[in-house]
Write a structure and sequence with these properties.
182 residues, alpha+beta, two-stranded parallel ribbon, 3 helices
Length: 182
């Protein structure tokens, strides 16, 4: 979508073991994305300044892991793919890049107040994947909105962080359905 002529996703398991939404995979294929299954990236090739390729090990499926997906096992056979850029997306975890000073959970996510997004450092606010771990983009957007309200309150004297955004009110409609009103 950002101008790449060709995109190839390299994945170490088969399509059946890939923990991705099937509709998203189908959409990617429709957009021209190619998939190379049973390949594990081993080395990014290049001259130190420019990427020229990606070396992959061909894999086969072994025994099932704790989640029931068959574990990829290296075959000792390698291939090189010509590429001019590599975007690593192996696993999803919070990468704080050396930012420290606030409380974190055992999984590396930042501890923040669920209503205000305020961390253990009073003037640091956090939301989205850095707090919840991998989730949907819309959840991060919602956290950003709540965080911006809290930051606004924080920087304006006389405001409080103890009160969250106004609560939504439910109204009973004919037939007993409830609707949330903003």
């Amino acid at each position: 979508r950002l101008g790449a002529e060709k995109v190839v996703v390299v994945y170490r398991r088969s399509e059946a073991e890939m923990p991705a939404d099937k509709a998203e995979v189908a959409e990617a294929v429709e957009e021209g994305v190619k998939f190379r299954f049973l390949c594990a990236p081993v080395e990014i090739l290049g001259d130190g300044e420019k990427v020229t390729g990606l070396k992959v090990e061909l894999m086969e499926l072994g025994e099932a892991d704790a989640k029931g997906r068959r574990k990829p096992v290296g075959t000792g056979n390698f291939e090189s793919m010509k590429v001019d850029s590599v975007i690593s997306a192996i696993g999803q975890k919070v990468e704080l890049c050396g930012i420290a000073g606030f409380d974190t959970n055992k999984n590396g996510t930042v501890v923040a107040n669920a209503k205000t997004c305020q961390t253990s450092v009073p003037d640091v606010f956090a939301g989205g994947d850095v707090v919840t771990g991998p989730k949907f983009a819309i959840d991060a957007i919602a956290a950003g909105k709540e965080g911006s309200i809290s930051i606004h309150r924080y920087v304006h004297p006389g405001q409080t962080q103890n009160l969250a955004a106004p609560r939504r009110k439910g109204h009973v409609l004919q037939g007993g359905m409830a609707a949330a009103i903003v």
